[in-house]
Design goal:
Order of helices and strands: EHEEHEHHHHHHEHEHEHEEEEHEHEH
Oligomer: single chain
Number of helices: 14
Helix content: 40-55%
Distance between the termini: 88 Å
CATH class of the largest domain: Alpha Beta
CATH superfamily of the largest domain: Vaccinia Virus protein VP39
CATH topology of the largest domain: Rossmann fold
Strand content: 15-25%
Radius of gyration: 31 Å
Number of domains: 2
Structural class: alpha/beta
Number of strands: 13
CATH architecture of the largest domain: 3-Layer(aba) Sandwich
């Protein structure tokens, strides 16, 4: 390096300006290195003393309360100054992942601006000595940071951010597909069967005495919100699907729904609700208050593939779940003499579109016991919409609610597909 090009510059005259990098790492450690070994590399300035590259060195000298710093002057245009700074930042100190992806994006845009359309991602990768895949990933993350920064709120590493991005892109793709389908014949029909919103609000829209059968799978009220997850098993815990599942929330929700359920269910009707064992008696009692003769014994769904217990070191795996059921008025079961124990294989975790999804086969079996073709069914907590598809196959008219936009979009797609299969004769429908 030609020593004559290096100047000792008064630090107070240097203009730092608005820099790309916001987090500069351990400045004290860097300052200590300069204190013992001296400033090995000079900073780079424009002719009017604007900083081009070397902010960490400058900050370290300020920390040491030095008055002067070694610098080299360069006649770079502003564009070139940015490119030099970006390359230095990416090449030297490890950046926070957010900074790295944003600097990569800005650098790529600046290079395209300077060299025109002939510039490519591959050339950017060569410029900063990064793989083409790495640049592509950074550009995707940077775009997502602009579009939906909230999905990365709890991502501390780039690996976590990539998993969050994968989930985001999947959800967006499903939403876009649902939007396109919703404009078609089956999508419009699906929107009649599945409404998006809070069940406490939507139930007000249902006419009096219009529902024959309530079949639903509400929150269990057993504080499962920290353990439930979507189908991507390797997703970081901070990106798993969460929902309210406290006992207080569950009981408040059911108590708030009961008056409207009493209003919209027909005098001769049936109810069947999945629940946790510890709430089964309480839940049955709520329906007894509005005239239902609830069976004193809950029904049991036995899974052939037992679900993992949350505390496996203390308890056995969960091989069954409960549901309470009953009828009022002159309602009679559509299928007599069936067992109160139903055996049905659970859905593999990786194949679920909802964390608490019930198998379609299970919902079909339950509806076959209560419903005749033409009956109107209600599910205020549609989730995966298994109950809705089962109602379609049974020849019933389903009404359902789903609060979460993602599950609503998934549900629309599933219902539209079922309706299309029905019309094409690919689904056996009870007439």
């Amino acid at each position: 390096m030609d020593k004559k090009l290096i100047h000792s510059i008064e630090i107070s005259t240097i203009i730092i300006g608005n820099r790309q990098r916001k987090k500069l790492g351990n400045i004290e450690e860097f300052a200590d290195s300069i204190k013992h070994h001296g400033q090995i590399y000079p900073i780079i300035l424009t002719e009017d003393n604007k900083l081009v590259a070397g902010e960490r060195r400058l900050r370290a000298c300020l920390h040491l309360k030095l008055t002067h710093i070694d610098a080299i002057y360069r006649k770079y245009a502003e564009l070139d100054s940015f490119i030099i700074e970006a390359i230095e930042n990416i090449d030297r100190k490890a950046l926070e992942w957010e900074e790295e992806v944003k600097i990569t994006e800005e650098l790529h845009k600046m290079l395209i601006l300077k060299y025109g359309d002939r510039w490519s991602g591959r050339k950017t990768a060569e410029k900063i000595k990064m793989s083409l895949g790495g640049v592509s990933t950074n550009l995707q993350l940077a775009k997502a940071l602009d579009e939906a920064p909230d999905i990365f709120e709890k991502c501390r590493t780039k690996e976590q951010a990539l998993k969050a991005l994968k989930k985001y892109k999947l959800d967006e793709a499903m939403a876009e597909l649902a939007l396109r389908n919703s404009k078609k014949k089956y999508g419009l029909k699906a929107k009649q069967y599945l409404l998006n919103g809070n069940s406490l609000d939507l139930i007000k829209q249902i006419p009096d005495a219009s529902i024959n059968v309530l079949l639903t799978d509400p929150p269990y009220g057993i504080n499962l919100s920290d353990t439930m997850f979507h189908s991507t098993r390797d997703m970081p815990s901070e990106n798993k699907d969460h929902y309210e599942d406290s006992t207080e929330y569950f009981k408040d929700l059911i108590e708030a729904l009961i008056p409207d359920l009493n209003r919209i269910l027909k005098p001769d009707s049936a109810v069947c609700i999945f629940c946790a064992y510890e709430h089964s008696k309480w839940l049955a009692d709520q329906f007894r208050t509005i005239g239902y003769a609830m069976d004193v014994l809950p029904g049991i769904w036995v899974k052939h593939n037992a679900g993992r217990c949350n505390v496996p070191e203390k308890y056995f795996n969960r091989g069954y779940e409960y549901f309470v059921y009953g009828t009022r008025g002159m309602f009679t079961l559509a299928k007599l003499g069936t067992n109160n124990v139903i055996q049905c294989t659970n859905i593999n975790t990786m194949d679920r579109i909802h964390p608490s999804e019930k198998p379609l086969e299970l919902m079909e079996e339950l509806l076959s016991r209560f419903c005749l073709p033409g009956h109107t069914t209600l599910d205020p907590f549609a989730g995966s919409c298994s109950s809705v598809v089962a109602s379609i196959k049974r020849g019933c008219i389903p009404i359902s609610f789903e609060l979460d936009p993602k599950f609503y979009n998934n549900g629309l797609q599933r219902i539209a597909k079922a309706l299309e299969m029905k019309d094409e004769g690919k689904m056996q429908v009870i007439q």
